Amino acid sequence: TPWVLIEKQQSPHLIRMYRLLLCCVSVVLWMGRVSGLENGLARTPPMGWLAWERFRCNTDCVNDPHNCISESLFMQHADIIVNEGYRDLGYDMVSLDDCWLARERDNRGRLQPDPHRFPSGIKALADYMHNRGLKFGIYEDYGNYTCAGYPGILGHLETDARTFGEWEVDYVKLDGCYSHPADMDRGYPEMGYFLNKTGRQMVYSCSWPFYQLYSGMEPNWTSIIESCNLWRNFDDIQDSWESVQRIIDYYGDNQDAIVPHAGPGHWNDPDMLIIGNFGLSYEQSKSQMAMWAIFAAPLLMSVDLRTIRPEYKAILQNAAVIAVNQDPLGIQGKRIYKDKGIEIWARPVTPLVQGFYSYAIAFLNRRTDGTPSEVSVTLRELGLGHPGGYVITDLFDGVQYGTVLPDKRFKVDVNPSGVVIVRCEIVKAVFEPGLSPFRPAQQQQFGFPFGNAINNGPQNFGQQHRFL
């Protein structure tokens, strides 16, 4: 019954009761929407394989059956991920991207795959992944169409969420083409609400902030964090070192605004790993892997795993670098020094001892002058002041530096457009007279790892150490 009729027909007492009831219902509905997914997923950055950067929108299965977007392509990659050890290292998801759809919805208004390229259907493809211990991801768009012109979800949010649940999807990537950025503040949380309503846990990847930032809007980060497990905030990655560098620069230049949003269950997504494709050298590939580990970024490979060369496969399967990326603290790293083509990035990681963090440190060489650059530094200059020192290990070469005290200098040689990433693990607790074991003098703010001397690295560091 319309509210106006209730007011005309009922007593003032009943009107007050109706109004109170309406208010309570509204509050419950509002809380249900703003509470976000609350799905308990992605406690560490998601890992897996996506088709887009490598295979794009190749739908020509007549002339190029080996590389077209088809169920065969995804099944082949699922088998490789299982049989060649990727899954056991954490790459446990295989996801569709754009161009899997038919051009029209079915006669019930539901999404459907292209019948020629996915003859078994999406549920069968999901079952194929699940039977191999993998998760299954899907792509859609909060718009009238996907970026490639296939049906979008506008006008069908609840239907599509329910369809994904029935197909047993584990991961939903929602793009933002053919939609207005101002509508996304309502639409993305609404889709998250409907995904949650299905009762199936699905990781929710959003392109929401990227489209708003690109249009000049300031995203509602509180709502984004509450609604999404990961989100894009910069341009699509392309198969080039220039593209990777632009992303690194964006994350460094805007780190004070970006880093606070990341943590268990909600991650900044700098886009896919392009390691093993055509645009990166061996050194540059190590640089992308190391930087994505420092960023606490999703590790989403987009490469033909059927033909990847062994040295690039080894980079993707480097368990020590993956461990940095998957560190349970979930703290995104920061750039703490930048000068003359040399950058130093730091990320707090486990183990912790009496409030001191261990750290992963990346020395990134942006120079192209043809010879390695020697970097000489002490840990104290980086803000690492634990009295007992740190055990330092090079994560790509496996070089052991042994136990290094805060004031002892050590050196690394960094190849042009390359990286050296080391893990600095605290050795043991060392107590000084009068020093509380829970609040060491060098690092008072346990919850804010960049609140110690490391936060002032760019200012103080350059005055104390030299590059050769």
UniProtKB/TrEMBL annotation:
Assembly notes: Homodimer.
Keyword Cytoplasm included in the entry's annotation: no
GO cellular component: lysosome; membrane
Gene Ontology biological process terms in this record: glycolipid catabolic process; glycoside catabolic process; oligosaccharide metabolic process
GO molecular function: alpha-galactosidase activity
Protein name per its UniProtKB record: Alpha-galactosidase
Enzyme class: hydrolase
Entries under CDD domains matching the protein: GH27 (cd14792)
PROSITE patterns reported for this sequence: ALPHA_GALACTOSIDASE
Upper taxonomic lineage: Eukaryota, Metazoa, Ecdysozoa, Arthropoda, Crustacea
All copies of domain Alpha galactosidase A C-terminal, residue ranges: 330-418
Signal peptide start and end residues: none
Record's keyword terms, sorted: Disulfide bond, Glycoprotein, Glycosidase, Hydrolase, Lipid metabolism, Lysosome
InterPro entries, sorted: Aldolase_TIM (IPR013785), GH (IPR017853), Glyco_hydro_27 (IPR002241), Glyco_hydro_27/36_CS (IPR000111), Glyco_hydro_b (IPR013780), Melibiase/NAGA_C (IPR035373)
Principal cellular location given in the protein's record: other
EC annotation from Swiss-Prot or TrEMBL: 3.2.1.-
Superkingdom assignment: Eukaryota
Family: Belongs to the glycosyl hydrolase 27 family.
UniProt keyword Nucleus, yes or no: no
Species of origin: Meganyctiphanes norvegica
UniProt subcellular location: Lysosome
